[in-house]
Amino acid sequence: MGEKFLIDGPDDARVTILLAHGAGAPMDSASMTATAKALAVTGFRVARFEFGYMAARRTAEGRKPPPRAEMLNPEYKAAVAELDAKTQLIIGGKSMGGRVASMVAEDLHSTAKIIGLLCLGYPFHPPGKPEQLRTKHLSGLAAPTLICQGTRDEFGTREEVPGYGLSKAIELLWLEDGDHDLKPRKSLSGFSAADHLRTMAEAVATWAGRLER
After folding, report:
1. CATH level 3 topology of 5-211
2. Is 132 left (phi over 0), alpha (psi -120 to 50) or beta?
3. pLDDT tens, 21-66?
C-alpha cells in the first residue's frame, strides 16, 4: 500500500476528519474502515494515515512495536501538514491514535489549524491498571473535544470516567455495552455494531456543526 492517506467521503465536504489508528491494528483494519465509512455517509471527508512503525510492518522491515505515544506527536503534526486540508479540519483517531491527537490538539487549535478533536475509544488507562491514568493533559484542554466510548470499554468505563476531572471542553458519547471498538454484544444490548457506528457518526455531525466557523 503506497498511499499516505486513505480517503472516504465527498471531495466537497465542509469538514475533513483526519484519523490515526490504534496501537495494534493498521489504518485499513475492519474497525477503522467501518468507522471511516460511517463518518463519510454523514457528509465528512475522512482521511486515514499510519504512523511509521505501522507502515513498516507492510515492508521487509517487519513488525515493530509501537513507541511511546508521545513520541508520535511529531508524526501526527506532519500528517496534518501533508494532508493540507482545504476544509475545516478535525483530528482524532482510534485508541492510541486519538491519544496522540489529543496531545497535539491544543497547539493546532490555538493556531486555528483545527476546529476540534475526536477520540474513538480513548485509552484512559491500560486494561486492568486503572491507577495508570493517561488523563493529565485532558484536564486543561481547551480544544473542543468529543470522546465516543463504549460503556464496557476496559480502557475506561462509564463508572470510571466521570471521576477523572476532564476539561469542560470535552463531551462524551456513551455507547451502550460497547467494547474498545464500540462494538456491543447484540444478544445482550439489542444494538448492533452498525447501530453504534451510525449513532457515533450522527453525533459527530451534530457536534461538528456547532464548531464550524
Report:
1. Rossmann fold (3.40.50)
2. beta
3. 999 999 999 999 999 999 999 999 999 999 999 999 988 777 878 9
What's the predicted TM-score (pTM) here? 0.96
List the chain domain ranges: 5-211
Q: Are the C-beta atoms of 197 and 38 separated by less than 8 Å?
A: yes
Give the count of beta carbons closer than 10 Å to the beta carbon of residue 37.
14
Residue bearing cell 460511517 = 38
Which residues have a Cβ under 8 Å from the Cβ of 212 and sit 6 or more positions away? 14, 15, 88, 115
Asked if residue 99 lies in contact with residue 69, where contact means CB atoms within 8 angstroms, the answer is yes
Strand partners of residue 48: 6, 19
Instruction: List residues bridging with 16 in a β-sheet.
Output: 45, 89
